[in-house]
Amino acid sequence: QVQLVESGGGLVQAGDSLRLSCAASGLTFSSSPMGWFRQAPGKEREFVAGSNRSGGSASYADSVKARFTISRDNAKNTVYLQMDSLKPEDTAIYYCAARRAWQVVYTYWGQGTQVTVSS
After folding, report:
1. Do 109 and 95 meet the contact criterion of CB atoms below 8 Å apart?
2. Which one, of 95, 97, 98, lies nearest residue 114 by Cα?
3. By the 8 A CB rule, do 5 and 68 touch?
4. 11, 56, 90, 115: which has the fewest Cβ within 10 Å?
5. Residue pLDDT, tens place only, 21-33
6. How far apart are alpha carbons 116 and 95 in whole angstroms?
7. Could you read off the pLDDT of 51-70 as tens digits, one per residue?
8. Which residues of 63-97 are buried (b: 16+ CB within 10 A; e: fewer)?
């Protein structure tokens, strides 16, 4: 079955950087668009960043543009989220997600990793 395992979360100060990783198994990774989402306390889950199958194209939420970068290593079945200039409002549980190439919505989800940014 498909497994997505996130790592790299933690407690940092405003202005710091973190890199999240998501290791995927049980799917043809190089054929799967990947994404990162987050959910802050009391808020709905929101899209953060997405990558096409090759990593040659990415999309971002306006709130993270120019600060976050999504990348992937298809040889390692891993997708990354580099987060720079972190703000307290970036505090959330971050989830990795995958979908089959022909699907519109993300079907597979990781368990999430906590990111806390102190002011």
Report:
1. yes
2. 95
3. no
4. 56
5. 999 999 999 999 9
6. 14
7. 999 999 999 999 999 999 99
8. ebeeebebebeeeebbbbbebeebeeebbbbbbbb
Start-to-end CA span in the chain (Å): 40
Hey, what are 20's tokens?
A: 């999240």
Tens digit of each residue's pLDDT (9 = 90 or more) over 82-119: 999 999 999 999 999 999 988 889 999 999 999 999 99
Contact (Cβ atoms closer than 8 angstroms) between residue 82 and residue 71: yes
Look at residue 101 in the predicted model and tell me its pLDDT. Answer: 86
Tokens of residue 79, six digits: 């997708």
DSSP class of residue 66?
A: T
